[in-house]
Amino acid sequence: MNLPLPERDAELEYDCPGLTSEGYAIKSPVDPSYNCVAFAVGDLTNFWYDAKVKGYYWPPGCGSADTLEGWVCVFLLHGYGDCDSDSLEPEFEKIAIFGGRSPEHVARQKASGAWVSKMGKGCDIEHPNLSSLVCEIMGGVMKIMKRRCKNGRRVLE
Amino acid sequence: MPPLLGVEKAERQRPRRWLTERGDSKRKAKRIWCTDAHGDHSEPRGLWKGNEIKVGTGGLSHCLAQESFYKGEDYVKTSNQTETEFVWHVSKWRRDTRHYSSVTKMVLHPSYLRIIGMGRQILPLLLNELQVRRDHWLIALNAITGEDPAEDDSTFNQAVDAWLKWGRDRGYLG
């Protein structure tokens, strides 16, 4: 039986205070088995990281998961390229990588212009903009990438 | 109340301000690590000696309250104390890393490292924790045991299942 999702997550709001003021919606239960990178590429069964034990996945040849280059490599493999704006472009899907010295999070834009994120080991959320996620844990926006919709349709929604 | 994080013999380089009134620096003493109100690792807070604790500058009352945990000259943890410490570190780690995507950052958290440092004695508690709440204990289990029982290309949940089976096969889990 699926329990109803909570409307708020106090720990999430504590870690990312901007969500409290900007608003957000919880879209999934807490699930540590996949992370934001997995979620951004549409994989809800693997935790994408180059850990040296079994139980994690990272694309071969993509370098360290602790580097922006490693994360960019993942999204290049999925057809994304450089982009300099987070504004909605209906013919493109966009992702935004957050971090500081190293990448910490990635969010994906929906057709509505809102963004969706898997919050670490926590829940999936929808949030209206990128600024609401800027915080100590996630850092700031490091890079935005986009890919053209296939035959006018988004691969993920 | 947070538990002490550890105690070790400190017969050398004992800070002068921690000497007992008797000032016998040759007697065995042990440094005591405590946690502050936020659970952070602290500097050594004082000395345990005989049946008394000498708290150094910045000493915290909850260090003194933990005195009953320590009996005799040798530091021997009771199973109850081990469990208390384990539960506290698990709780601290889970809360602090809940929104991390970086496994590196998860496993470098002081509480995660402390749990690894508790060694094989912690396996029943750690495997039970994994069974109750799936979380990223795979690296800790590998570090403690030197084993990695999951199949190649396992998903996270498949790897957790492999570790739970490993634990049951070896009697760590009921």
Topology of helices and strands:
The complex is a heterodimer of chains A (157) and B (174).
Chain A: H1 10-15, H2 18-22, E1 25-26, H3 36-40, H4 68-77, E2 81-83, E3 92-99, E4 103-109, E5 115-118, E6 124-127, E7 140-148
Antiparallel strand pairs in A: 1-6, 2-7, 3-4, 3-7, 4-5, 5-6
Chain B: E1 6-9, E2 30-35, E3 41-49, E4 52-55, H1 61-65, H2 79-97, H3 103-107, H4 110-117, H5 123-132, H6 138-145, H7 156-169
Antiparallel strand pairs in B: 1-2, 2-3, 3-4
Helix pairs in contact in B: 2-4, 4-6, 5-7
What does this structure look like?
The complex is a heterodimer of chains A (157) and B (174). Chain A contains four helices and seven strands. Chain A has 157 residues and is α+β, with helices and mostly antiparallel strands. In chain A, strands 1-6-5-4-3-7-2 form a seven-stranded antiparallel β-sheet. The mean pLDDT of chain A is 95. In chain B, a hairpin with a 2-residue loop joins strand 3 and strand 4. Chain B has a four-stranded antiparallel β-sheet. By secondary structure, chain B is α+β, with helices and mostly antiparallel strands. The model of chain B is unreliable at 1-77 (pLDDT under 50). Chain A binds chain B through residues 11-12, 15-16, 30, 32-37, 45-47, 49, 51-57, 65-66, 102-105, 118-122, 137-138, and chain B through 95, 97-104, 134-136, 138-139, 142, 148, 150-160, 162.
The helix fraction of chain B, in percent, is: 25-40%
Number of helices of chain B: 7
| Fraction in beta strands of chain A | 15-25%
Task: Return the string of H and E elements of chain A.
Answer: HHEHHEEEEEE
Structural class of chain B: alpha+beta
Name the beta content range of chain B: 5-15%
- Give the helix tally of chain A: 4
Q: How many angstroms does the end-to-end distance of chain B come to?
A: 30 Å
Number of domains of chain A: 1
Structural class of chain A: alpha+beta
Order of strands across the main sheet of chain A: 1-6-5-4-3-7-2
Q: What characteristic shape of chain B results from the CA principal axes?
A: globular
Mean pLDDT of chain A: 95
